[in-house]
């Protein structure tokens, strides 16, 4: 009985410490959360689509592509 409890505890701890990969995970919803940027309105991509604009960098090679209606209004001279 004690070995079953220890085995169950090890399995639960193993599942708690598992971190799904961000860009290549099997779960589409988790992948979308990790690939989103700019207040969850943008998407990290190597190149932006025609109806999107580059706003910030997600990492060293991906751009944060955002629909222009979600971008902040720039003010200045």
Textual characterization of the structure:
With 77 residues, this protein is α+β, with helices and mostly antiparallel strands. It has a domain at 27-76: Anthopleurin-A. Helix content is 29%, strand content 19%. It has helices at 2-16, 28-34; strands at residues 36-37, 42-45, 53-57, 63-66. A four-stranded antiparallel β-sheet has the order 1-2-4-3. It is rod-shaped and about 75 Å long. The termini are far apart. The model has no long low-confidence stretch (mean pLDDT 79). Keywords: Antibiotic, Antimicrobial, Defensin, Disulfide bond, Secreted, Signal.
Compose a concise summary of this entry:
This protein has helices at residues 2-16, 28-34; strands at 36-37, 42-45, 53-57, 63-66. It is of the alpha+beta class and 77 residues long.
Poorly predicted regions: none
* Helix content range: 25-40%
Q: For the record, what CATH class of the domain at 27-76 applies?
A: Mainly Beta
| DSSP strand tally | 4
Which structural class best describes the helix and strand composition?
A: alpha+beta
Strand content: 15-25%
What is the general shape?
Answer: rod-shaped
**Strand adjacency order, main sheet:** 1-2-4-3
């Amino acid at each position: 009985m004690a070995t079953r409890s220890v085995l169950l505890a090890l399995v639960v701890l193993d599942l708690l410490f598992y971190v799904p990969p961000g860009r290549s995970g099997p779960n589409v919803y988790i992948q979308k959360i990790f690939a989103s940027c700019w207040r969850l309105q943008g998407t990290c991509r190597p190149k932006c689509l025609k109806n999107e604009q580059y706003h910030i960098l997600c990492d060293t090679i991906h751009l944060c592509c955002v629909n222009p209606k979600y971008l902040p209004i720039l003010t200045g001279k």
